From TrEMBL:
Biological process, per Gene Ontology: heparan sulfate proteoglycan biosynthetic process
Keywords of this entry: Disulfide bond, Glycoprotein, Golgi apparatus, Membrane, Signal-anchor, Transferase, Transmembrane, Transmembrane helix
Subcellular location: Golgi apparatus membrane
Subunit composition and interactions: Homotrimer.
Highest taxon of source: Eukaryota
TM stretches of this protein: 7-25
Signal peptide range in chain numbering: none
Family the entry assigns: Belongs to the sulfotransferase 3 family.
Listed InterPro entries: Heparan_SO4_2-O-STrfase, P-loop_NTPase, Sulfotransferase
Gene Ontology cellular component annotations, sorted alphabetically: Golgi membrane
UniProt-recorded name of the protein: Heparin sulfate O-sulfotransferase
Bilayer topology: Single-pass type II membrane protein
Length: 341
C-alpha cells in the first residue's frame, strides 16, 4: 500500500514537471514572438515618424567629402588602392593631394584656399581626398560644410623601421625606383648603435603631429601639448581611426559607417591583392637590445601612448559596429512624442 502511495506521488510530480516545462516553453515562445512583434512595430515607427532615409541618400551622401590625411608607412597605399577600385562602381571621386616638396603642412593662404576649394567643388562630390598632410581644422577656415576625416595609425617603432629600409631598398609597389638612401647597407641595429640621424627617436615624431595639425607646437618633438591635441582631434574630429595591424576591420567599419563610398569594400579587400599592395623590401627586424634602447626614449613613449590610445578607441568603435551582440532586436533609433501633431 505504501509503495502504491509513493508511486502515485512520483506520478503526480512527473505530471507537474511536464506541465511546468510545457508552460516554460510556451512562455519562451511567447516572449520570442513578442520581441519579433516589438521589432516590427519599432521598424514601422521608425519609418513613419518623420524620418526619411532617402533624404540622406539624395542630399547629404552626395555631398560627402572624406579626407584621409595618410601617415607615411602605415599601409595607406593598400587602403587607397581599394578606394580607387571602388570609386567607379560606387560613383565617387578619389583625388590625391600633392603638396609641393612633399611638405606635410600648408601655408595659411593655402589652408584657406584648399578648404574653400574642397567644400565648394560640386563636380567632385562625393569625394575621397588623400595625401600626406597634417590634420586641418575646417571650422577655423570659415567653410559652410565640414569634411569627414579618417586615418590609420601604426606601432611607432614598426613604422620607423619600415621607413628606414624603404629609403634604402624601396618596395614591391615600384621596385625599380631608386630611393635616396639606395646602396646604404647599414642595418637599423647598426644605425642605432652608431646614433645616426636616420634612426634617431626624434624621427618617430610624425603620427602625433599628423593628428595634432598645423600649429607650430605640433611639430616640436616631445611637446606634451601636441600629444594631448592629437588625442583630442582623434576623438572629436575623426569618424574612425584604424590601426595598420587590423586593416580589414578598419575597412569593414568604414563600409558599415559610410556605405555610400565603401559598399563592397570588405569583400573586395578579401578577394583581391590589395592587402599586400606595398611592402618594404629586405626589411630586417631589430634586435631586442635595439628595441629596448629605442623604448627608453621620450619620443617613443609619447608616440606609443597615442598609438595605444587610438587602438583602444578603435576597438571600442569596432565592437559596436562589427561584433554581433546577443540582442534579438537590432539597435535602431526613431522619434516619438512629436508635437504639434
Amino acid at each position: 500500500m505504501l509503495n502504491l502511495h509513493k508511486l502515485w506521488l512520483l506520478s503526480c510530480l512527473g505530471v507537474i514537471v511536464v506541465i511546468i516545462l510545457y508552460f516554460q516553453a510556451e512562455i519562451a515562445h511567447l516572449e520570442e514572438s513578442y520581441r519579433k512583434l516589438e521589432y516590427k512595430l519599432t521598424q514601422n515607427q521608425f519609418n513613419s515618424r518623420q524620418f526619411n532615409p532617402n533624404i540622406l541618400q539624395k542630399d547629404d551622401n552626395n555631398d560627402l567629402i572624406v579626407i584621409y590625411n595618410r601617415v607615411p608607412k602605415t599601409g595607406s597605399t593598400s587602403f587607397v588602392g581599394v578606394a580607387y577600385d571602388l570609386c567607379k562602381k560606387n560613383h565617387f571621386k578619389v583625388l590625391h593631394i600633392n603638396i609641393t616638396a612633399n611638405m606635410h603642412v600648408m601655408s595659411l593662404s593655402n589652408q584657406y584656399k584648399f578648404a574653400q576649394n574642397v567644400t565648394k567643388w560640386q563636380e567632385m562630390k562625393p569625394a575621397l581626398y588623400h595625401g600626406h598632410m597634417a590634420f586641418l581644422n575646417f571650422e577655423r577656415l570659415g567653410t559652410s560644410s565640414k569634411p569627414v576625416f579618417i586615418n590609420l595609425i601604426r606601432k611607432p617603432l614598426d613604422r620607423l623601421v619600415s621607413y628606414y629600409y624603404f629609403l634604402r631598398n624601396g618596395d614591391n609597389f615600384r621596385p625599380h625606383l631608386v630611393r635616396k638612401k639606395h646602396g646604404d647597407k647599414m642595418t637599423f641595429d647598426e644605425c642605432v648603435e652608431k646614433s645616426q640621424p636616420d634612426c634617431d627617436p626624434n624621427s618617430m615624431w610624425l603620427q602625433i603631429p599628423f593628428f595634432c595639425g598645423h600649429a607650430a607646437q605640433c611639430w616640436k618633438p616631445g611637446n606634451q601639448w601636441a600629444l594631448q591635441q592629437a588625442k583630442h582631434n582623434l576623438v572629436n574630429h575623426y569618424l574612425v581611426v584604424g590601426v595598420t595591424e587590423e586593416m580589414l576591420d578598419f575597412i569593414s567599419v568604414l563600409e558599415s559607417a559610410l556605405p555610400r563610398m565603401f559598399k563592397g569594400a570588405t569583400e573586395h579587400y578579401l578577394n583581391s591583392n590589395k592587402s599586400h599592395l606595398r611592402q618594404t623590401s629586405s626589411k630586417i627586424d631589430p634586435a631586442q637590445s635595439t628595441i629596448e634602447r629605442i623604448q627608453q626614449s621620450t619620443i617613443w613613449k609619447m608616440e606609443n601612448e597615442l598609438y595605444e590610445f587610438a587602438l583602444e578607441h578603435f576597438k571600442f568603435v569596432k565592437r559596436k559596429v562589427l561584433m554581433k551582440e546577443a540582442l534579438s532586436v537590432p539597435q535602431t533609433f526613431f522619434y516619438e512624442k512629436i508635437r504639434p501633431k
